[in-house]
Amino acid sequence: MNRSLFSIFALAIAAAVPQNAHADILRVGHQADCPYRTLQAAIDAAAANGPGEDEIRLVADEFTLQRVAIADQSLIVAGGWSGCAENATRTGRSALLGGFEAGAAGINAVVRIQASGEMRNVSLRHLELRDGTGGPDGHGGGIDAGGTLRLVLEDVDVLDNHAEGDGGGIVMRGPANGFGGILELHAGVRVLNNSATGRGGGLFLERATARIRADRTEIASNRATLGGGIAAFASSITIGSIGEPEIQRDATGSRIVLNRADKGGGVYLDTGSLFDVHELQLSWNVAETIGGGLYAIGGSQLQMQRDYPNAFAVQCQGSACSRVEGNQAGNGCPGTRGEGAGLALDGGARAYVRQTSIIANCSWGSPAIQSWGPLLELDGVVVADNRLRWRDGISYTGRYAVSYASRVGGPASTARTRFSTFARNVQVKDDGSTVPADATSGLYTGGAWQFEAAAIATMDPFPGLNSGTGACSRTGLDATAFVDVTSGDYRPRTNGPLVDACAPTATTVEYLDPLLAPRCIDHPRPDQGGTCDIGAYELQPPAVPSDRVFAHGFE
Questions:
Q1: What are the φ/ψ torsions at residue 172 (nearest 5 degrees)?
Q2: pTM of the predicted structure, to 2 decimals
Q3: How far is CA 311 from CA 248, 336, 348, in A?
Q4: Using one digit for the tens of pLDDT, what is the confidence trace for 312-333?
């Protein structure tokens, strides 16, 4: 869709939405010329003004003991205004503080938003929401929201909130029947240092949808029992080009970092949830038992990559934009327990991981990925510098960088690995010395796991498989095959054995490489078996332009 067609489409939608001539602007502040002194008074006035989407403007100041409620109305709450005069300008943010003293009122979330029946739209802009202690049911420290509601946050910090139940920072619950429960985090939204005794330290979703823009959004330093950063049940989470549908070449990506939980330090998925993410850094999260970066069960599905299905992409720069890095599972690095430091999949969870680096994760076993099926697909993935505990003489599923496990009587599972690199993953002995770790656990055809492999480049030992390592794969490599392994640069060296070493017909070529470069570009050197490079990266000849916006053929 070109820009002109998109504009026509947007105008058509706008024309179809009923407009209310009675929508008004209400101003809130401590100054004498402000019509409203409290946010709740302005909310109540907006509700009395009719169903139109009124806008409330708050002076850039701190508003303490906040426990406001918005019910069955569409509303914009925008902070950071210089005053209440007609010519006031926006100068920053407004802070809404809850506080434990607010408990006597019974509604202890800083902002509680509920809608039923007609779909409502609420936007919160240029705000800080702090010191909330949970809604009337103990959930949602900063924001307790749900029902037939679309809630949009832009330039908002949700920080230092706590819930005795779920959702230390934000709770979004959709209706039991029908459509709603939509949360959108646009540019500049951060969910920081929140905690929940139950699920979802930063964000808890149930029967809901979260859409997160991959630019200046961060869920960091939150804590919970399940899902330190995010916990999702029967919900859908997308990260990518949310908001203004324009190609943005300088985006920062989204970050889920430094969160902690018993299971799913960064993310916990259950009950058929979908986590479909582009341009995400899932890094430095900690789980006490399993899934430092992410833990998925209950038939949930992970899709992590950089490619977009359409031309409206948010383009973060560099391979760090899709990364599972530095996550930890267990009681040390590596400790005496803990599995699946990067990603852990169980209970029918599937994962499609593409164009991503899984590096420097640490656990007692399976530091990069642990999968109990039924499907794990890796394409354009670097698995490097992950650490696990030494287990001399023990053959166990967790002693490999990527482990594939199955249960007796379980369904057949499939592992697909294409255009991926395994390097410098290690087992740590008790004395601190290291030995190379096997890249993956032993797989075999005709058994519980069906293994499909092609174009793999590995410095690490690769287990003997009945089907081998697939077409075009190279094992037993040393550092000279790559540009600079000591600095984490696993691109193929120009004169090395990985360049132009595989024919496109030898495997399936579907995706760009982790730097969004096209596959199978013929390099100006004699072919060694085809035009495709082996491993995660495709070496680009100097003559190939750097502009990859239309690499998929969009016009």
A1: -130, 120
A2: 0.91
A3: 11, 47, 32
A4: 678 888 778 899 999 999 999 9
